[in-house]
Structure formats: structure tokens, C-alpha cells
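hey so i finally got around to running both of the ones u sent me last week. sorry it took forever, my laptop kept dying halfway thru and i had to restart like 3 times lol. anyway pasting them below in the order u listed, first the sequence line then the C-alpha cell line for each. didnt double check formatting much so if smth looks off just lmk and ill redo it

first one:
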Amino acid sequence: MKKDWYKKELLLKNTQQRNGADNNRKDVMKIQSWLCLFNIWNPNSATATGIDGDFGPATERAVQNFQKIQGLQQNGIVDQVVFDTLSVNLKNAFETPLQSNDLRSLVVEAAENHVNNHPFELDIKGQSNSGPWVRSYMDGNDGNPWFWCMGFVQAVVDQAASSIGKNFKDLMPLTYSCDTVGTTGLQKGILSRHQQIRQDLSLVQPGDIFLTQKSKFDWTHTGIITQVFGEVIETIEGNTNFQGSRNGIAVMKRTRNLMRSKIDVFSIAPLI
């Protein structure tokens, strides 16, 4: 895989604990981030705590609450074994072996695997688009400016293509920009415009990439098409929400109407 920053998010430099001599601010923030993410999925867990890099009594208690739920020793100390349990969803999303045989099915399977592991952004020190999931999709970048929908799409396509020995960069350049991918699609003749699609729905297939068009050469959001039901598509999208925002909070599965939105479609056929 080309997009492998996620591996850094799975490791601690040293064991971290309250007032520990080997405490590292970045590692403590990783731990606090995963504690907050766990609380999003388990709101009664009382693992949410401030993400400030300070392993104090509140973080210690949050760790103990997590350890209790997981059946681990409740010592408030985070070594690599405890951190592996905290960050297991990220590992599962990126490293669960894919079972499908063709690229389209592999792309859909990979996208499904990610959404099932609950990728979610955090707000850290006033910066949205932050946290381990965002950095994994955006090659270490996070914070307000880093809209991560294309980073998510490319991570999924990279994962699927790599599983069968193909390079996703033969299809598109490594980028975080919807405009770059849209322009690449036009140059290669593999981007179907929404006007064409409305006349021929067969242009849209699972595994393809949708781009919402703001103007002729300006696209603002993207995601993976997982199923097609006539004029309705099911999608899996990063950095979205229940309203379909292009700057939301999570990876989510949605439905979209091809007849009501300006949705262009980038075909992955050249990589097949």
C-alpha cells in the first residue's frame, strides 16, 4: 500500500502513565484521542477526556474505565498491549484481508470494512478534521484546512488495488483534492458528467468514485459508490454527516439521487 501512515498511529514510543518519566506528549494525545473515540461508540463508558497531552488523574481514570470494560488489569497504565486494544478499529480497517476477486468488489469491500470500524474525526484544541483517522487518510496531516473525503477515497482504492498487485496511482495522482481527481478524469476520458449520467444510468457502477459538482471544473465532495438502484446510489463517504456535508465528522453510508444532484462519476475501469 502507498498510503501507510496509519501504521504510525498504531504505535507508542514508550509505555505511558500518570506522571511517567517516559511520557511523550504526542503519545498521550494519541491515547486520549482513542479514549474519546471509544466513548463516541460507547457513550456510557466514561472514557472521554481532554486531549491535551497531559497524562493526569482524569486520563488515568479514563484508561481504568476502558481497561475495566475490556477485562484488562485496571492499573491506568497504557503499554503497547493496551494501546493495541484501544486502536484495534484502525488496524482492522486497514489490515483485514480482503476476500473479493475483482477490483470493483474489492473497493466496495474495503469501504464497507472502514465504515464498520467507525472512522470519526475529533476536535483537538479548536481544530476540527483532527485525530488518528484523519491523519491515516491524509498521510499525517490534520486540522481545520484538511478536508479528508478524498484522502478516505484514495486510501480505500489503494487498499483494494494493492491487494491484487496494482498501483492506484496508475489511475490518479496521490492528492487530497477533488478538483485534481475531477480534472484527471476529464483528461483521461473517464469522468462521466451528471448530464450524461441522467441519460444513461449504466455509466455508474459499484466501486466508482462520485464527485459532487459545484461548477464545471469545481468539485466539492467525493465518496465510493457501493450500490446502484436506477437513479439512486448508495455510497460510503468520508468527512460527511447525515446531511451529506462535505465537511462533516465521520465515514458514513448514505443514499443519493443522481437526478437531483450534480453528481459526476470517475470510473475505476482503467485499473481493472
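and the second one:
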Amino acid sequence: MTIRVVLADDQEMVRMGFALILEAADGIEVVGQCGDGLAALEAIRQLRPDVALLDIRMPKLDGLAVTRQVSELTKVVIVTTFDHDEYVDTALEYGASGFLLKDSGPALLVAAIKAAASGDALISPELTVRLLQRTRAGGEVRNVPGVDDLTERELDVARLVARGRTNTEIAADLVIALGTVKSHLTSIQTRLGVRNRVEIAARMWESGQLQRHR
């Protein structure tokens, strides 16, 4: 199935670059391009894309405001130059399924679109660690249901997810196949009762697994 994407950025060259990257990927079609937030809001409502790729700082309406209004209509991936913590927190609060920095590279951009379309979430690795550190800062280590049910290898995978590693990096770190990583992630999600890798990471930080294995 082709993933239909609307992308919005006030810089034309950036929009063109993103469109070229996404159109070159298998199974992705850019169905709309917008230069401001109001145009993006209208395009999303009319075209009903599978994923909206939104910049934060745009004229007329910023990407966070658009996210708040459309997150029930489509999956949203935020992409921005600015890695301010409050942007990440607000985007996730408003229902975004991904948050990338513009220098993340083509592979991560495509991966974020595909993850969002499949109901998963992907955040730039360096932002994931900061996000979970803020979530855990000063908090109590809790007994998180399902963590004790994870196998040793599943714990290895889950800890690396919590440290912001991609699937490819996890496979290399543990010297296992990429398909095996994906199988472990599916099992981990089932055991923990979570929907995506961001929630896996949250459970690991909450349970104190990251503090125990530095």
C-alpha cells in the first residue's frame, strides 16, 4: 500500500528536497506541498493523507498548532531545525507520531514516515534520550508490569531502544539480524502492553533499567 504524504515547510528548497527524498522511496507518494500552516491544515483536511510532515516555524499557523488540529485525521511527523525540549514535549502532547531534526538524514526521514504510517513512533535518537531523561528526572523507580517477563535478549534490545538506537544500530551492537531485532520489538511491545518504541523507552526508564546498566 502506498503511503500518501502532505509536507509543509515555508522554505521551498527544503520542501523540494524532502519531496525528492520521499518520492524516491518505495511505497511513498507526496500528494501535497504547502508553504504555510493554514495551507497545510486545509490540504490535510481535503486530501486526508496517511502522514503529514510538518515544519514547526511556519507563517500563519505553526506546525504544533496544525498538529493539535489534525492528529486525529492523520499521523504527524514534525521535522525542524530546532531541538528545543519544549517543542518535543508539546508535539508529543498534541499527538505527533515522530519528531526529527532536519539534519537527521534521508534514511531516518523515510523511516519516520513509514513508522508513523504503521502506527509506530520515531524520534531522532539524541532527542529520545533527552525526552526520557526529563520524564525520569527526580522520579521514583517503579515496578513496571511486563518488564520482569522480558527475556535477557529482549531486555538488551529494550535498553538500546531507550538509549535512542535505531534498529540497524541495535542489530550491529548485539550482532543479530535486523529481522531478529524487529521480532524482539514485537514481542517486547506485547509483553509491556505498549504501542511503539517511544513507549518501550519510557517503560525502561520508569523501571530503572537504564540506571542499572550504564
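quick thing i noticed on the 2nd:
DSSP finds eleven helices and six strands in the chain.
anyway thats it, ttyl
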